[in-house]
Amino acid sequence: MSEPTGNATQRLPGTLRDHRLAAEAVARGLKARYWAERRFKFYGLAAVSLGMLFLAVLFFSIISKGWSAFRQTYVQLEITYDPALLDSDATSTKEALAQADYNAVVKAAMRKLFPTVEGRPNLRKLYALISSSAGFELQHRLADDPGKLATTERVWLLADDDLDQYYKGRILRSEVESTRPLSDQQLDWADQLRKSGAAQLRFNRQFFTSGDSREPELAGVWGAVAGTFFTLLVTLLLSFPIGVAAAIYLEEFAKKNRMTDLIEVNINNLAAVPSIVFGLLGLAVFINFFGLPRSAPMVGGLVLTLMTLPTIIIASRAALKAVPPSIREAALGMGASKIQMVAHHVLPLALPGMLTGTIIGMARALGESAPLLMIGMVAFIVDIPKGLFDPATVLPVQVFLWSDIPERAFVERTSGAIIVLLAFLIVMNGLAVLLRNRFERRW
Q: Is the pLDDT confidence value at 29 over 70?
């Protein structure tokens, strides 16, 4: 017997009709909920996809602009350490050799490479194709081996940043000559160098071994990397033990009263304070009051310690709360004191979570620049820092400094420094994930 449909429902007995209407209402409700669930999944997937798209665009933009910073143009010259040009002889001391005119030797090698170039203006344009550091490179080579005096050797020397940008395709011959840094004649010389194999793009070791410089081809990130290392070292040595100790006290020993509630509220509020406020605090306390030197990794580490402490305390307390109460009860039941219970049972189980929170806090500190600008770490630092009180800068500030320079070659240097900074962040966050997966306990 077929079931009634349409208006036939109205002719059913009252109870059966009520059941049918209720079933239809339930079916409509289920259908609406299923559609709402599918819409929610679609919105979530769209949000994740959009975020991944933005992240991919960001990484593509940075890498496409910055990968070329890891390669630099070198020009091979036949260098003759002519004593007449150097104003030296075989009996010259190292001090005399250090004061010799090595730029004259470089210029002589360039004239030998292009013998048809004449006239002071044209020669100046020719000499401009070689970096100003070429003379210092030859000075170091001769200082390391004085026996090279009056001999000839082929040396790969850094090219000027404009020539490097031309070979990398960022200076085009199609541009109007008056708007580009290289003249048509210099481009002709550049093409001759590349055709003869005297100019090549090689791995840019200068970028990873030197500090900052006004000349783009000489600028490197090693000074900023060293400053970052010393700054984060101070931050880690101070923030981790203090943060863990504060978390243990608040979670395990402190009595629950208004004072501890006030402390907890302030810790949570400090975690949301803008980072530049900590920079102002460091400027007022550590520099103006205590008289510590500006631009020093010690001051930077102290400022970043204040900034990361709330994050570490909150993460450490969450790790302590995740330890089951039965662990504490069992330890106390076996006769352990409260300190023994915390040190021997609770702390080892909570330590992985504490380490994860600490590394995440350190990663945040690595990416901060605003508080360090306030304590003078924005200064132009050429020398590589060797200690906690030497003038230094850090990678985020180095990126800020280079991004403010209009020269074309500093654009790739800026993106290259960002790539190095991102590599540090990825390593630190990867370490946090590794520690969590390695030591995390499921209760």
A: yes
**How does DSSP classify residue 250?**
I
Query: How many CB atoms are closer than 10 A to CB 141?
Result: 15
Answer CATH for 222-439 from 3.20.20.70, 2.40.33.20, 3.40.220.10, 1.10.3720.10: 1.10.3720.10
Q: Which residues pair with 80 in a beta bridge?
A: 152
Calpha distance 124→105 (Å, rounded): 15
pTM: 0.82
Q: Which two tokens stand for residue 232?
A: 């984060």
Q: Please name the residue that has the structure tokens 């709402």.
A: 36
Name the nearest CA neighbour of 396 among 425, 411, 417, 426.
417
pLDDT at 1: 43
In terms of Cα–Cα distance, which of 122, 72, 128 is closest to 103? 128
239 close to 361: Cβ distance less than 8 angstroms: yes
Residue 88 near residue 96 (C-beta atoms within 8 A):
yes
Residue 5: beta bridge partners? none
Please name every residue paired with 156 in a beta bridge, in sequence order, or none if there are none: 76
Token pair listed for 436: 């969590």
Bridge partners (DSSP) listed for residue 305:
none
**Residue range 149-202, pLDDT digits in tens:** 878 889 999 999 999 999 998 888 888 888 888 889 999 999 999 998 889 999
User: What letter does residue 296 receive in the DSSP assignment?
Assistant: -
If you average pLDDT over residues 82-100, what whole number do you get? Answer: 69
- Would you state the torsion angle of the CA atoms of residues 87, 89, 91, 97, taken in this order, to the nearest 10 degrees? 40
Domain ranges of the chain: 69-203, 222-439
Residues 255-294: tens digit of each pLDDT: 888 888 888 888 888 888 888 888 888 889 999 888 888 8
In sequence order, the 6+-apart residues with CB closer than 8 A to the CB of 88 are 96, 97, 100, 149
Mean pLDDT of 76-86: 83
Phi first, then psi, for residue 379 (nearest 5°) are -70, 155
CB atoms within 10 A of CB 269: 10
